[in-house]
């Protein structure tokens, strides 16, 4: 099984998706049959819809990271890795396209993928599809959990590797771990670190599955689950209160 092309990756081409996917692509490129990029048909419409939901501070930060990656750090993208390792890739803009191009496969991994993977799609994978969620599930389901934790002034950023089901961040858990936040550390730097660590741990899923060592556990039903939305004006107030920064000039040397 280890010598077959039996891995499918679901990604967007953001910098942080690159950080998460880097480990498995570099170590298992020969086993990856396909990289699927989520790609909106209307970039302008997508950007406008995000702008309506988020605070200006977060919108500028997100746009700045995208600008740096697109024009100055092109090698820090999954598209670059796909070309480097000669891995087949395809762009999809909706669930129907995704359904049409996918064949039955062994295992899938998702990295910031922008489309919902339906039960019909998940069932195409013998060992399921595994995802990274930057919180200690079932706490902080939803959008940008690490960003909210940082804005709250949490002392750690947690990450959960779980097997996806047809709920929102509700699947069975493989591993949970965290990184401590150092004083004066920007969000960019801590999120890069947790993304790299999560990608390395996720890569170990593949090896454990091949050795039939995978152990999954259901999410703790005794813990209260919470759900987060887009970083909005409330987020702005929280991050100002905690005296935290999203990005600094020094972070340009951390790309």
Could you walk me through the main structural features you see in this protein, from its secondary elements to its overall organization?
The protein has nine helices and nine strands. The protein is an alpha/beta fold. A seven-stranded mixed beta sheet has the order 3-2-1-4-5-7-8. Strands 6-9 form a two-stranded parallel sheet.
For the biggest β-sheet, the strand order reads: 3-2-1-4-5-7-8
Give the helix/strand class. Answer: alpha/beta
What coarse outline follows from CA principal-axis ratios? globular
Tell me what portion of residues adopts beta-strand conformation: 15-25%
Largest sheet: 7 strands, mixed
Order of helices and strands: EHEHHHEHEHEEHEEHEH
The overall strand count is 9
Summed over residues and divided by their number, the pLDDT gives a mean of 91
Which ranges are low-confidence, i.e. pLDDT below 50, for 5 or more consecutive residues? Answer: none
What is the C-alpha radius of gyration, as a whole number of Å?
Answer: 18 Å
């Amino acid at each position: 099984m280890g010598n077959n092309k039996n891995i499918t990756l679901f990604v967007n081409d953001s910098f942080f998706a690159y950080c998460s996917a880097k480990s498995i692509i570099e170590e298992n490129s020969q086993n990856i049959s396909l990289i699927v990029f989520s790609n909106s048909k209307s970039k302008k419409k997508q950007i406008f819809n995000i702008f309506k939901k988020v605070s200006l501070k977060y919108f500028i930060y997100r746009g700045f990271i995208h600008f740096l990656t697109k024009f100055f750090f092109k090698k820090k993208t999954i598209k670059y890795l796909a070309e480097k390792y000669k891995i087949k890739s395809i762009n999809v803009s909706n669930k129907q396209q995704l359904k049409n191009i996918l064949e039955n496969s062994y295992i899938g991994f998702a990295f910031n993928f922008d489309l919902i993977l339906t039960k019909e799609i998940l069932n195409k994978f013998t060992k399921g599809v595994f995802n990274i969620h930057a919180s200690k599930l079932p706490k902080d389901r939803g959008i940008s959990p690490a960003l909210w934790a940082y804005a709250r002034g949490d002392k750690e950023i947690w990450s959960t590797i779980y097997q996806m089901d047809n709920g929102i961040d509700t699947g069975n858990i493989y591993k949970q771990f965290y990184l401590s936040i150092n004083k004066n550390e920007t969000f960019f730097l801590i999120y890069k670190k947790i993304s790299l660590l999560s990608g390395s741990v996720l890569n170990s899923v593949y090896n454990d599955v091949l050795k039939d060592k995978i152990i999954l556990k259901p999410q703790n039903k005794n813990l209260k689950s919470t759900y987060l939305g887009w970083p909005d004006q409330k987020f702005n107030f929280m991050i100002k209160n905690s005296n935290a920064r999203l990005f600094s000039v020094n972070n340009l040397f951390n790309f």
